[in-house]
Each structure stands twice: as C-alpha cells, then as structure tokens.
Amino acid sequence: MAGAPTRPRPVPAVTRPRPLTAAGLLVAAALVVATVLLAGMAAVGTGRAGDPDGAARAAPAYTPSAAGTLRGLAPPGTLIGTAVDPRGLNLDPAYPGVLAAEFNAVTAENAMKWRNLEPSPGVYAWAGGDQIVDLADRNGQAVYGHTLVWHNDVPDWVSPDWPAQRLREVLRRHVTAVVAHYRGRVWAWDVVNEVLAEDGSLRDTLWLRKLGPGYVADAFRWARQADPDARLFVNEYGTEGRTAKADALLELVRRLRADGVPVDGVGFQGHLDAERPPEGVRGNLRRFAALGVRVAVTELDVRVRLPATGEGLRRQAAVYRDVLRACLDVAACASVTVWGFTDARSWIPGYHVGFGAACLFDADFRPKPAHAALLDELAARRRTGG
Ligand code: XIL
Fold this sequence. Notes:
single chain; alpha/beta; TIM Barrel; binds (3S,4R)-3-hydroxy-2-oxopiperidin-4-yl beta-D-xylopyranoside; GH10_AS; signal
C-alpha cells in the first residue's frame, strides 16, 4: 500500500503504559470478566432507564464482539483511548466493563480541569482525577492528562483584575502542583489547550492579554520541571486536516521547538461532523511528525444530525475508520482517543444542537457500525502486518 507505515511504532510512554506480562494479562482478563459480570448483575438489578445528565442507565450486559476488542487488536505501542466521565463510571452499570475491555488508555473528560481540581485557592480536589488514574492502573491503561492551561474552566477565584505577576505565579503553581501530583502516572499532558484563534493567531485569552505570548513556553517549562518523564503536548481543534489553522499550529510548534521549549507532541482533538470530515489528515499528521514530535488524536467523536439514520451511522463509521487509518499510517502517531465511548454520556448534544449519536457505542452500550469499522481496520492490519 502506498504510504505504508514505518515499523516498529514507538511506544508512546517513556515507561508507561507498562507492557503486561502473561500473569498481568491473566489478571487483567479476570478483572474484565468480573467487571462485565458485575455490571451485568447490576444492570439487571436496577432495571431503570437513564437520562444523560444524572440517573443511572440500565443496559444489557456487555459482551465483547467475536471479532475482538479495540485494545486487543491494537498494534503494539498504539494506544486506543477514551475520555472517562465519572458519572458513567459511578452510575452506569455497563460503563466500567466496556471501559476496561475495549481501551488501553484514558483521559479524564473533565476531572483534571483546573476549575474541578482547585475549587478554592490552594484547596485541591484530587478525588475525581485520582479515581480515574487508580482505575486505569487496575485496568492496565495509560493515562493522558487533560489539561493544564486553557481559557475555559479557570476557577472563578482567579481574577482577571490581578496584576500580571500574580496571575503568572498562580498559573505556575497550578501547572506545577497538578503535574507533580500525577508525576509518574500520566504519560503525557495537554499542556496548553486551544491556544489558537480560527485565523491562526494566538487566541485572545486572559493568559495572552495579561502574560503575553511567552505564557505558552513558560507552561511547557514548568510542566517539564514537575515531571521530566511526561511527554508534553499542544492540543488543538480544527487542525486535523490541512487547514490554515493547522499551518499556524505547525509554525507555532516549529518555533517553540527552535527556541528550545520542551514540546514533545501535538494533539488533534478530532471533534468531527460526519458530513464534513477533514481532508488530508494523514499528510497533515506526517508534516507535524516531521518536526520530530509525536502526534495523537486526542478527542475523537463524529457527530451526526439527529435523528441518526442508518446512512448517517455508516458515514460516521467511515470517518472513524479514516482517522484511525491516518494515525496507524504515521509511525509517530501514539494514540487515538475517543471523547467518550457511549452516546449515553456524550457532550455533543449539549454543545452542537441538533447533532448527537457521536460515539462508538449507543446509549444502551451496544456497539455501533463505527466500532465494527475500527475493529475491522485493526484486524485487517494484523493480518497484513501493516
Ligand atoms: C468538554 C467536555 O466533554 C464537557 O463535558 C464539558 O462540559 C466541556 O468540555 N475540547 C476540549 C475538551 O479540550 O476539554 C472539551 O470537553 C471538548 C472540547
């Protein structure tokens, strides 16, 4: 095949995720079976229909597809991850079983955002993030940290009226405290998230206005100091294909690295519309990889207009598959992470009115055509060794 991937693929973590030994695999398999059984029993026990925002969702017990699981079929060194939502974890009986069985990496969907971690100055609320990291350990999953510096989810107590020096110090403390807390347990961090405006200039945020453009480099240096082994990423949306914004991101990363800033990777969020998929994803990932960084698809979901039709779900499946393919074709691509795996908990209907059904599993935790398409792609590559 043209553009065949170069092997061997790099293991994304320096030491994480640890390869499972045979004994570890047995334990992991037993855990998955136990979780699935428990989840099934709990589902029978509750027997209630759920709603996306709060209540538990009853669902039939999950049984892995005869074709295998995503993590089972993933090539060595490639992470297939999902964002984790504690509501799903704590409320949906089927959620933990699917999470453990299908994915070998996780990202906290919201639990590690600043607003949630430090509700008041110096008072940290680690429980949500810790729950996810502890579970990931038990499941043999790598953890991708999300996110240190963002214009959203800054706690209300951080005041835009503070002088620059105070803001800078508060940001430094935040980055340092969070990275240090998860040191050795998070293989990579989104150090800065969505720092570009649509036209490719640096986004007009509190941080840019008060601290100037140097805040980006500062954040990377603080993060490196707090955990020298964690890979440090810039994360962005609208840059999956060859857009003007992607050009600007490429230039930003090139310049940062030329200045000696420790940028190790570029994350492409991948919040996609099945009707308007990005073009040239593989070539785009490659040109970033050529800078010497890792790349990753960090927040993949593919929304369709509601009500979802069979045709919509088929298109969605093709988009999911194309993105996975692009990543697998680029040796520096460390992971594909979906932004939640069940339509029961997806953020999409709340943010993109009229759209939804964006995930690999439906609201009842049944696998959709997109899941089958990913399994098929992974299995095909196993057969051909590609
Ligand atoms: C979203 C979460 O999925 C929602 O639950 C939350 O209400 C808002 O944030 N880009 C990002 C993610 O980097 O953190 C966002 O996650 C989705 C867009």
